Amino acid sequence: MIIPVVTTVAAAVVVVITLMNGVGLQKERQNHLRSLVNRRIKRQVRVKRHWLM
User: Fold this and answer.
1) Mean pLDDT across the chain, nearest whole number?
2) What is the domain count for the chain?
3) How far apart are CA 42 and CA 24, in angstroms?
4) Is 50:5 a contact under the CB 8 Å cutoff?
5) 5: which residues sit within 8 A by CB, 6+ positions away?
6) Tens digits of per-residue pLDDT, 23-46?
7) Phi and psi torsions of 12, nearest 5°
C-alpha cells in the first residue's frame, strides 16, 4: 500500500519541477523545493523501514 504512494509523490514532484522550470523560477527557490521534497521522501523511507521492521 505504501509503494504506490511513493511513486505518485515522485511523479507529482517531477511535474512540479518541470512546471517551475517552465515558469523560470530562480534556482534558489528550486533548490529550496528540492530540499523540502528530499526531506519528505526521506521521511517516507523511514516510515517504510518502520513498517518493514
Assistant:
1) 74
2) 1
3) 27
4) no
5) 44
6) 665 666 667 778 888 887 777 777
7) -60, -40
